[in-house]
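Re: the request from the purification team.
They wanted to know what the chain is likely to look like in 3D before they choose a buffer screen. I agreed to run a prediction and write the result into the notebook, where they can find it.
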Amino acid sequence: QTGARGHSSFRARLNGESPGALDALLPGSELEVTGLVQLEFATAERDDRISKMTPNHLDLILRSAADVVVLQQPSWWTVRRLLGMMGSTIALALAFALWNYFLRARAKTQQEIISAQARREATSDERTRFARELHDSLEQEFVGMTRQTEALEHAGPLTPQARANLEVLRQMLGLSRDNARRVVWDLRDPALLDDGLEAAIRTALQRIVSGKPMVVNLLAEMDPAADIPPQVQVNVLRLAQEAVTNAVKHADARTIEVRLTHHDHTLVLTVTDDGHAEVTGGTPPTASAGHFGILGMQERCDKLGGRFEFHSRPGGGSSVQATIPV
């Protein structure tokens, strides 16, 4: 062991006992040691004679470990421990700050989700209310006008021209009623999505072909774990409605097949009919030819980052396909 007092240092040596006898001593302890002093001197010569004797080394030879008495233990607060405590405190503070940041970010995200859901529900409720009021008011007006045409028809003999005009009026009323009903149902369609995209499409297609001499088959292969965004669902529903409506009105189709698949984050809607369509190969008909429904479907696909295809066969029938990434 090496000791120091003031500016003097010496070495204490213990012989004859195990080397670990003094291992319990802590650095920085104040000790009292008792032992035999052994000095080594170096001779300094000056003017060819011995001028003074200077001790070169001082060793203290101990008899046993009992010759070492601890007067004062060192302070527990060493530099190493202080630095360790400071490092641990800083690490805990950083961990708490990061945890607080992530909690705030998660709470903000959840709040945004809740707010968006509340807005969607409020919008859906308002659309449903507006559709209900619009349906009630328009339906009553159309019924009243239809009753007036029936009254005119039974009021007395009509000329052939008047009877023809009355028939045109009756057809116009029927068309206006169908268009109004379609607008009302378009307002309600987002609420129908609560039961899933497949159910909403099935309900919409049944409404379109109701009372018409045709058959519509819906085949769906959907991933049960699929989480399709509402915006994509609404646009796919509109695409299915427009494709089937075009086949009914413009192609005089008798059989329509609608296929909806969702695999590998890709949603594919295919509508095939057996009607007569303009043969254009793989190019969709232009809007100048009166095909605004096809143009609208293509624009919807472009807005969603998807791909739209139109095919017609020389022997009759056509198909549209929308491929949309989810």
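For the purification team: The two ends are 76 Å apart (CA to CA).
Please add any questions underneath this entry.
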